[in-house]
DNA sequence: GTAACCTATTCACATGCGTTAGTTTTTCAG
DNA sequence: CTGAAAAACTAACGCATGTGAATAGGTTAC
């Protein structure tokens, strides 16, 4: 059930078999299925734990008073939403499903058990949280400085690599369910311009995007186009000195 | 020395006199002064603790390969930079001073001592970190959805309230040292358009900005203009149930 | 099977903001 | 006080992207 999370955390530190089992167990306690295009948590809700995305895609978003919507991040299998958010009174943004989604509720007690049971797991979860912050900073840069093609290219690079790091990419392709309207809400572009931009990227033979699948025809070209530097994802076993020996 | 941090944390939870002294001590151990417009930490550096801004303003930023720069956040007195970032191998962004700055280096040991010495302090520091994430999300929204006037208004609201929460605002005014070029790097606008935007806001009598001081003439009007909703700053004593009784 | 509705696509036109290239004002070192 | 550099400001013009509106294919509900 939580293979994607374990795979992802192992980019930071090698976990022992027992640690993997502990995560496995935590991720199977309370599992729910949610339909496509539903809210999982809504702005103003009182959170009482964290969510692990087991399957499907979700997004975090927020509406302005006048109806404009900004998606501030995508959540893919292996992602934990709002680790430790139970310190805050209420959610300041919403989380909605893009596809049908399977989530595991991680209660406060479960999380505290995991973290106190293994320093390595605790560190790995903090690593994941720090990377989530870095991703959010990168979105700020993306929206502030990159033009439409660069912005879209960067988003594709990010989500391909994130899925790959969780064992969820196949060769040069991966799932990619957002509609063009959702891509617009994530990139701050109108749907018309998202469409124009995708056409342009297709005719430059950078990507193929159909049937909710993304195929990256030339990853180097795409990364160059996006000025994508993957170091912010910290996927290079930062915590190797903590690796399990068994 | 760390009054601003203590003031800010007390928005979340009331700290005992002993806890306040402990923070005071941690923030006076290693204090340095840095000139205006210098880098405090640079992308690629290996962090070995956290920084507390005691006085002056700094910013976090990142360059794209072609020289475009995005400021991803401002740091004002009382702000901690990169709490727990020592889990990561290297900085994925830089931190530079805008004015002359006084910083206190908080070593890993000092931080761990603070957090293990008081659960309330530990929680307060995590609260601060969660709020920092929420601010980063809000910047994403700001750059993705708001036009120039709204964007600038939102930035002013944020920084006024953040300084106020640290006891660093005076009535309806506060320090505001960024140049128009720096405001452009933060809002994703050209300096020319920053200038146009400020003129517009001045003629609408929303703000006065001169001599590195921001005066907010009509906070309600400014917040309306920005569609600013302060709840993401979580300034409403979320952790009241943990308050010190002494 | 078909109505209702997303989703993708295209076109024409409008505009917010960028760019280039200045000038003026302020700051600050000496 | 003076000169040089930084910061603020202005004007003209162009383009990337938004808006509104229309079409068509695909999907889902009944």
Distance between the termini of chain A: 23 Å
CATH architecture label of the largest domain in chain A: Sandwich
How many domains make up the coordinates of chain A? Answer: 2
Fold-level CATH name of the largest domain in chain A: Jelly Rolls
The fraction of residues in strands of chain A falls at: 15-25%
Give the oligomer, counting copies of the same chain as homo and different chains as hetero: homodimer
* Bulk shape of chain A: globular
User: What is the strand tally of chain A?
Assistant: 12
Helix content of chain A: 40-55%
Query: Topology as H/E string of chain A?
Result: HHEEEEEEEEHHHEEHHEEH
Largest interface: A-B, 45 and 45 residues
Q: Structural class given helices, strands, pairing of chain A?
A: alpha+beta
How many strands, what sense, and barrel or not for the largest sheet of chain A? 4 strands, antiparallel
What does the average pLDDT of chain A come to? Answer: 96
Report the uncertain regions of chain A: none
| CATH class categorisation of the largest domain in chain A | Mainly Beta
User: DSSP helix count of chain A?
Assistant: 8
Strand order of the largest sheet of chain A: 1-8-3-6
Task: Give the SSE layout.
The structure is a homodimer.
Chain A: H1 3-9, H2 17-26, E1 31-34, E2 39-41, E3 49-55, E4 58-63, E5 69-75, E6 80-81, E7 94-97, E8 101-107, H3 108-117, H4 119-145, H5 148-165, E9 169-170, E10 173-175, H6 180-187, H7 191-203, E11 207-210, E12 213-216, H8 219-226
Chain A binds a DNA duplex (30 and 30 nucleotides) through α7.
């Amino acid at each position: 059930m939580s293979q994607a999370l374990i795979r992802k955390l192992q980019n930071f530190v090698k976990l022992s078999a027992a640690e993997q089992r502990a995560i496995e167990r935590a991720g199977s306690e309370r599992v729910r299925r949610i339909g496509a295009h539903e809210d999982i948590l809504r702005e103003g809700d009182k959170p009482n734990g964290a969510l692990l995305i087991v399957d499907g895609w979700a997004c975090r978003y927020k509406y302005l008073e006048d109806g404009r919507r900004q998606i501030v991040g995508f959540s893919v299998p292996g992602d934990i939403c709002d680790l430790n958010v139970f310190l805050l009174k209420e959610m300041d943004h919403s989380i909605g499903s893009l596809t049908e989604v399977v989530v595991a509720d991680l209660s406060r007690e479960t999380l505290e058990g995991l973290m106190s049971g293994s320093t390595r797991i605790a560190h790995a979860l903090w690593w994941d949280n720090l990377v989530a912050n870095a991703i959010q900073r990168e979105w700020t840069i993306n929206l502030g400085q990159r033009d439409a093609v660069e912005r879209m290219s960067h988003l594709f690079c990010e989500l391909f690599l994130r899925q790959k790091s969780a064992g969820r990419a196949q060769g040069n392709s991966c799932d990619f369910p957002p509609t063009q309207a959702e891509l617009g809400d994530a990139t701050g572009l109108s749907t018309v311009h998202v469409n124009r931009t995708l056409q342009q990227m297709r005719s430059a033979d950078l990507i193929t995007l159909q049937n909710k699948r993304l195929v990256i025809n030339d990853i180097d070209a795409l990364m160059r186009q996006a000025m994508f530097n993957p170091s912010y994802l910290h996927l290079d076993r930062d915590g190797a000195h903590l690796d399990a020996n068994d």
